[in-house]
Amino acid sequence: IAARQHRRLVQGDVALRWQPTDTLTAFVRSASAARAAGWNLLDVATQPAALPVETGWHHEAGARAGLAGGRLFISAAGFVATTRAALSPLLGIDPAAPGGGRLFGNRGLDLSVAARPVTGLDVAASLAVQRARWRRIDPARPGDRPLFAPDVVASLSAAWAQPLAGTGAVLVPRAALRWRDAMAVATGDIPGANGGIAPAGWEAAAALQLDIPDPGGGDLGWLVSLECENCLASRLVDGAAGGLPVLNRPRWWQLRLARRF
């Protein structure tokens, strides 16, 4: 494979933003992308100069709003994206990705909400829905779902800031839940993922944080935090290697002490 190659690529990006009020913003954006072929050839002997440039388009539209006197924020956006290339960007990673004349498409919706219903309490939720699919698939290749692209991911979190009287310190308990839909992790059966499709699942995380201010004031001080990830030891298949499943991180605890200077 040639050590160097030179291509002249043209990319475009057009965006419009409209703010009818101080609390509402709408936007639309279209962008084209181009990348010289061959960056993902790995051990393939084909010369990059013989391959066409990888091109794509991404279109997005959405809105953001602040409501209830700044206590509620909502953001929503929809997108459509396509990519064309002679070689898959996941060559060597996603065996289901077709080679010649490849077309990859994705479309979806992102929604997020953040609120402070009462002083000290912050809650947030997000939802991401997409449909990522290979197109023009070789009939001999399995499936049309790319690896590691669940159709739905959702999260919910909350934090409560409780000042400790007479100390200036603030105690902040936090909790979060994350759920993901079933997703492709392999092109064939592996333990825990029939047909290479890992089942849907969820994880929980939590923390108890103590913020101790510096006597001199400002943002200086100490931070002490006891944290756990996957607190309930949920078992998820996140990938595959050598015909075996790769599991999510097991439950773990961390005690963190930090000094802000």
Structure description:
By secondary structure, the protein is mainly β. The chain is about 0% helix and about 55% strand. The strands form 3 sheets. Strands 1, 2, 3, 4, 5, 6, 7, 8, 9, 10, 13, 14 and 17 form a 13-stranded antiparallel sheet that branches. A two-stranded antiparallel sheet has the order 11-12. The radius of gyration is 24 Å and the shape is globular.
Brief write-up:
With 261 residues, the protein is mainly β. Helix content is 0%, strand content 54%.
Radius of gyration: 24 Å
Distance between the termini: 50 Å
> Strand portion, in percent?
over 45%
Count of DSSP strands: 17
Helix content: under 10%
Question: The biggest beta sheet, please?
Answer: 13 strands, antiparallel
Give the arrangement of secondary structure elements:
Elements (H helix, E strand, L loop, with lengths): L12 E9 L2 E12 L18 E14 L4 E14 L16 E14 L5 E10 L2 E3 L16 E9 L1 E2 L6 E11 L2 E2 L12 E2 L2 E13 L7 E9 L7 E5 L2 E4 L4 E9 L1
Antiparallel strand pairs: 1-2, 2-3, 3-4, 4-5, 5-6, 5-7, 6-8, 8-10, 9-10, 10-13, 11-12, 13-14, 14-17, 15-16
